[in-house]
Design goal:
This protein is mainly alpha-helical. It contains ten helices and no strands.
Length: 234
């Protein structure tokens, strides 16, 4: 159901000029019942000018009278006679004029780093056409010598979330794993067969035997020299 353009102002007018219940007004305006009750109590939307939904073409007088007589009935919006805006079909997004010159750079970056992306995904990300993508791919673009691959996120052509989502969808479709590559470990140096053999068990070394003690013979006592004889004096 179409909601009024100004829900609070419409609720103010319906509270002041009709006998509709709070539930009917809340349902029509897309508001909470307590919020409508707060407007009626003067706690919310103080001093707000009410908007007549009949004059705006959102309700008919007959519909208001019908629902005022039946509290269980729900308001049905009037048929819009004014032309309504049409929903924009899905397709390539709009690219500002200031960024259209760098669009081939973003296309080249996507083709180089994410070849699994389809032309339709690239077209939606950067807002271009498939002939432009093909001309950048086969280097037949009129400005091909000056194209330098640059990240479209940094150029402002798309958001990082949109790029990650498109890449995840493309990789899931291709059956590739979206995981970072494991770091390569350096290869171990080759070892000779002798070095690969287990070391021989160590044999315990016996402590050296103590040297036998040699008993030294006592040195012969020196012979005492005879005392000189005293000369006798007559």
């Amino acid at each position: 159901m179409a909601r009024p353009l100004m829900p609070k102002a419409t609720a103010v007018w319906l509270l002041d000029n009709t006998a509709l219940t709070f539930e009917q007004i809340a349902e029509f305006c897309g508001m909470h019942l307590l919020e409508v009750q707060a407007i009626a109590d003067g706690e919310v939307a103080i001093g707000m000018q009410g908007l007549d939904p009949v004059a705006a073409g959102e309700l008919t007088k007959e519909e208001i009278e019908r629902c005022a007589a039946d509290p269980d009935a729900k308001l049905k919006p009037a048929e819009q006679k004014n032309p309504q805006p049409k929903a924009r079909p899905k397709g390539a997004r709009y690219t500002p004029l200031s960024k259209r010159q760098v669009r081939p750079d973003g296309i080249a970056w996507l083709l180089k780093n994410y070849p699994e992306l389809s032309d339709g995904q690239v077209s939606k990300l950067v807002g271009t056409t498939k002939p432009t993508i093909n001309s950048v791919r086969d280097k037949s673009h009129w400005n091909s010598p000056n194209i330098k691959p640059q990240n479209p996120v940094g150029l402002g052509l798309c958001s990082e979330a949109d790029l990650e989502k498109a890449v995840a969808i493309a990789r899931a479709r291709a059956g590739t794993v979206h995981a970072p590559a494991a770091e390569e470990k350096p290869a171990a140096p080759e070892m000779s067969p002798l070095a690969a053999m287990p070391p021989a068990p160590e044999t315990p070394i016996a402590p050296p035997a103590p040297e036998p003690e040699i008993e030294s013979e006592p040195a012969p006592a020196a012979e005492a020299e005879p005392a000189p004889e005293e000369e006798k004096i007559d």
